[in-house]
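SEQUENCE-TO-STRUCTURE ENTRY
===========================

Subject: a protein chain together with a token-level encoding of how that chain folds.

Sequence line: the amino acid chain in single-letter code, read from start to end.

Question of interest: how does this chain fold, as expressed in backbone structure tokens?
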Amino acid sequence: MGRVLAIDYGKKRTGLAVTDPLQIIASPLDTVPTYQALDYLVKYHETEGIETIVIGMPKDLMNKDTDSTASVRHFITLLQKKFPTHQIHTVDERFTSKMAKKAMLDGGMKKSDRRKKENVDKLSATIILQSFLESSI
């Protein structure tokens, strides 16, 4: 059984989260510059093995596309070319950044660490992954 990898795609940074090989626990992985994300994922897959990819799909409160939706769809097309045999799922990512910030605050993370956007990005990816895992049960 391979890992499930989640992506919180952003124009500048992309947050990543991953499960353990048994697909039980979702954990933050890393935040990478978006222009390096595909290369990072290919290298990660070579060493760890990815079975499924989950990506957050941006929607507004009315469940309509946002300014970022087209960029995410383009990235999904690139993922499909790099990983043609992998399933790629989308998950509603509304409120994940807000939830990540709250989790950091509730978890006692220092203010200086909460201000680092890369921490919010990879925690948002973890929330996306957890949401996917819970919906797959």
User: Anything to note?
Assistant: Residues 117-135 form the longest helix (19 residues). Residues 3 and 50 are 5 Å apart (CA to CA). DSSP finds five helices and five strands in the chain.
